[in-house]
Amino acid sequence: MIFVLGILGAKALYLTYLWLLSAITASWLSNRKGYGPKPGLASGLLLTFVGVIIWLVYPAKQASKWKLQGPIPRRGGTTTVAKARAHGVEGDQPKR
User: Fold this and answer.
1) What is the pLDDT of residues 8-27, one digit of tens each?
2) What is d(CA 64, CA 33) in angstroms, rounded to the nearest whole number?
3) DSSP category for residue 88
4) Would you kindly state where each structural domain of the chain is located, as residue ranges?
5) 69, 32, 72, 26: CA torsion to nearest 10
6) pTM of the shown model
7) Quick one: angle between helices 37-47 and 4-32, nearest 10?
């Protein structure tokens, strides 16, 4: 009798890692663009690579980390979202 899980092999494991990495990336992008991590996680899990591409081209909110700090965050000395809102940067405020 052949063990069925052994047939799947390493390719299935690598594809699973790739799928999870795309979900993590889409979640990180949507959070930096000011929409929170949940929409990005959902799109990354359901659409895999397309979800990451969608979040790369989707526009960021005005007072988001993406707009204030740029696409890739730098360490130290950067304006935080809280400081920008205190200085009057208008943007979409999160709903509470």
Assistant:
1) 777 888 999 999 999 999 99
2) 5
3) T
4) 1-59, 60-96
5) -170
6) 0.74
7) 140
